[in-house]
Amino acid sequence: RHGESGGAAMAAAMQQAAQGLCSAQVAARRRSSRRASSRRCAPRAAETPSDEGLVSPSAFPAGARPPTPILDTINFPVHMKNLSIKQLEQLAEEIRKDVIYTVSKTGGHLSSSLGVVELTVALHYVFDCPMDNIVFDVGHQAYPHKILTGRRDKMHTIRQTGGLSGFTKRSESEYDPFGAGHSSTSISAALGMAAASDLKGDGKTSIAVIGDGAMTGGMAYEALNNAGFLDKNMLVVLNDNKQVSLPTANLDPSTGRLTSAQPVGALSGMLSRLQSNKPLRELREIAKGVSKQMGPEVAELTAKVDEYARGMLTTGERATLYDELGMYYIGPIDGHSMQDLVDILTEIKNTDAVGPVLLHVMTEKGRGYTPAVEAADRMHGVVPFDIETGKQKKSSGPTKAYTTYFAEGLIAEAAADERVVAIHAAMGGGTGLNLFQTRFPDRTFDVGIAEQHAVTFAAGMAAEGLNPFFAIYS
Predict the structure, then answer these.
(1) What does the alpha-carbon distance between residue 133 and residue 267 come to, in Å, rounded to a whole number?
(2) How far from 270 is each of 132, 203, 266, 320, 412, CA to CA, in Å?
(3) DSSP state for residue 392 in the 8-state scheme
(4) Among 15-24, 172-181, 275-284, 320-329, where is mean pLDDT lowest?
(5) Is residue 309 very low, low, confident or very high in pLDDT (cuts 50, 70, 90)?
(6) Which of 238, 235, 227, 170 minimizes the C-alpha distance to 195?
(7) Residue 392 class from Cβ within 10 Å (0-12 exposed, 13-18 middle, 19+ buried)?
(8) pLDDT digits over 75-101, tens only?
(9) Which of 144, 192, 265, 273 has the largest CB neighbor count within 10 A?
(10) Torsions phi, psi of 128, nearest 5?
(11) Whole-number pLDDT of residue 79
């Protein structure tokens, strides 16, 4: 009888959800048709990053710190809670100016932080830190996080003796629940925190923000696999700024820039909102519970129906990978749309569904600062620079850097022995092997941020008679 009544309830609920889904699809189709009609009458937009959110050099008169009226009132995340979306957008722009100004004086990681400003603001607006845990990975994306968590007045000391760390650091702030550098550890850490929260019953939310190359580390996938098995409530935010090992079809390979195919606009936002919708996700959990009571055949059938329904809402291959690992995939969404970020994060937070969620967020590395967007390396790591031109003020001392001596020595060895090859883990500049690559491009291997793989990859080469040199940045 329980099975019959549960089945009836499930059928009624699924019918209601289907009606809502159809209504949403119809409305989206109508909006899409209207936009298609208007686009046919309008000139085609250039396939380059937009000027939206662009920070003009005039914002820094005579190199002075720009005015930041809203940011000046924010010392900790709790001070943001009553801001409107428009005010949050202005806050994000002020933080972006503050990062540019600070890093122009101190050097450090610039473009990674510029790309996550809106995401960081939205996370701190929706969630309740330091009770909730946000783990940034790689840690150098955390400059906006540091600014919003009581460390703005110390940002001028970043990466200096006795100053702030360039990464997150537990001993530096209660808002840094875990230390992460290079990299790929955040999902494991957040999963451990989620499991601990379950045992303690403290109701904390654990969030891993992973990106800027960190998804190239195999440990991230080990953690995703275990997260799907443990089925703990946690959120993984994939910050996809085109430096991940997964396919990102929204990048123009000929220019390396965002194209008009990027997932922005009302239709993309509607699909992501629909997938994050609280009643829809809770309905899925109810349906899974009822179908299990009705036997394995019904459970298998409802799982296939759910997979098919979500397949119509998302982008195939991306969702399939994470779904197979047991994650509830949402996205991709525009990581610079404050409204979309706040809406979707709020839905995720307020949904009482069991299991891990992966939110795929598309961002632009170097967002808002033209010299960074146009630079080949996106001005990833910089020394002090001129804000107006982006030109870095590199010193020219009489002594070469140690990495230069290392690279020149290895180049000499490679010139004398064709078996010599060089390997690095996404650190060509930091190890000096970018110089080696200029001379021997076919004998240089960048494996991504995956040191464990790199060591074994080198061992395989050595087993076949080559002489591999793996430079580990430390």
Answers:
(1) 31
(2) 27, 29, 6, 20, 57
(3) B
(4) 15-24
(5) very low
(6) 227
(7) middle
(8) 999 999 999 999 999 999 999 999 999
(9) 144
(10) -115, 80
(11) 97
